[in-house]
Amino acid sequence: MDDGRRSRTRSDALVVFGVTGDLVHKMVFPALYRMVKKGVLDVPVIGVASSPWTVEELRKHATDSIQGSGEDVDLEALARFLGLLGYVGGDYKDPGTFQSLGKALGGVVRPAFYLAIPPALFETVIRSLGDAGLSRQARVIVEKPFGRDLASARKLDDTAHLVFPEESIFRIDHYLGKEAIMNILYFRFANSFLEPVWNRNYVDSVQITLAEDFGVKGRGVFYESAGCLRDVVQNHLFQIVALLAMDPPAYQGYEAVHAEKAKVFRAMRPLKPEDLVRGQYNGYRSEPGVAKDSDVETFCALRLFIDSWRWKDVPWYLRSGKNLPVSASEVLVEMKPPPQKLFDDSDPPPGEGRANYLRFRLSPNSAVALAARVKTAGKEFVGEQRELFLQNEQRGEEGPYERLLTAALSGNRSLFSREDAVEAAWAVVDHVLYDHPPARPYDVGSWGPREAESLLGPEDRWHNPGAG
Ligand code: BG6
To answer: Nearest 10 degrees: CA dihedral of 31, 35, 38, 40?
Structure first.
């Protein structure tokens, strides 16, 4: 699926702001290296950061990152990648840094600027690119979180639009580049059997869990300014909700998908404090960079409603947390149970197989499974619930950063978030960002605070994904 535009120009350089940072080391260098290896990246890659590094130091740093990423390194491709690298060091607040960048760009006409920097610096860098005359025909790729609430997202959009037209702004949510998440869209609309039941008449509830079995991993300073709701719920989890909840796009082309997703965000009922349980793992306050009396949540569970014709009154239970028992993410779409209890085992306790469900496993492996009851051999009419696997573990997938950066460099906006959708998603959480219950403590390795149970209806249970 394409974004529908016929002619797109390719960027002729990639400028990576924040090139000495963690994100670039962990995700971006390996992605760029793979792009070079595949032959889709052959333009200069200029790193920018405040450290006074030489290009040699940057090359060494990039080499460490790629060798540490666990893949077999092709030395010829690595050399080609390192040969594309350049470096400009300087303070982002100093106009001189942007003049040096202009010189380093030389004859480049259509650079793509990738801001892998703390969100507080986005506006400074965007304005400076404009002031230095570097933004003409350029693209800007912005990492999440895009804003920290509705007002700041709007302000950031306004600033960005002073310098770049909307069609040159690429807001990254790396979840949109994940194979298993792209498959939700495909699975829903490449099949016809789902559509008749994919609504309030047949679906009882939807659950999405994004669990991680590690803590903030040295990102305490960032996490203190974000918390789980801003870090993964307003973006990653909401994007998954939108793909599951959207109406069929009216025509082929990504503009139609964007339009339907934006309608879902608009139809989400703004969250109230009672829709939310916040948790904090024991020990979080001793992490480097974390306040001793921090109330920032490392766990978040919420109950969401989408007030559309299709989804009215169906609860969407979303949950994410650090230091939970496993690292795994799953969606469970639970259907209503049969209206009559005809068999001896027709009324198993909640969570024990009474209702059919569709399960999308999103990570660490991907799967799509449909659960249904089947009779056990014997004279009794009793049975058990079994899962039919429609897809189980697809390997060899392209990583999300590789996919998204390749798309951005060629101007393909399909997998990026649109301004109206990002703002509508902020509007849903805006109130509870500031008015919320205190974070409840939970033990490392548990499924979060017990209070999360209170969000569920009497017949519902949290579905805890297995380690797999
Ligand atoms: C990032 C968050 O956006 O997503 C992290 O900042 C989180 O806190 C990560 O761990 C999860 O992404 P993935 O791809 O590992 O599921």
So the answer is: 160
Contact 32, 81 (CB under 8 A): yes
pLDDT per residue as tens digits for the range 61-74 = 999 999 999 888 99
- Say which range, 50-64, 145-159, 344-358, has the weakest mean pLDDT: 344-358
Q: What is the mean pLDDT of the chain?
A: 94
pTM here is: 0.95
Task: Return the closest-CA partner of residue 419 out of 46, 151, 169, 106.
Answer: 169
Check if 232 has its Cβ closer than 6 Å to any atom of ligand 1. yes
The pick from 22, 142, 236, 401 for probing ligand 1's pocket by mutation, whose C-beta has the most ligand atoms within 8 angstroms, reads 236
- Ligand 1 binding pocket mutation candidate from 22, 178, 217, 232 (most atoms within 8 A of CB): 232
Please indicate whether residue 423, judged by its CB atom, sits closer than 6 Å to ligand 1. Answer: no
Which of the residues are catalytic?
A: 236
- Tokens read off for 347: 């009324």
Burial per residue of 159-178, b for 16 or more beta-carbon CB atoms within 10 angstroms, e otherwise: bbeebbeeebbbbbbbbbbb
Report the C-alpha gap between 418 and 260 in whole angstroms.
12
Distance 212 CA to ligand 1 centre (A): 9
Quick one: which H or E segment has residue 104?
helix 95-105
CA pair distance 255, 249, nearest whole angstrom: 9
Helix (H), strand (E) at residue 170: strand 169-171
Which pLDDT score is estimated for 397? 66
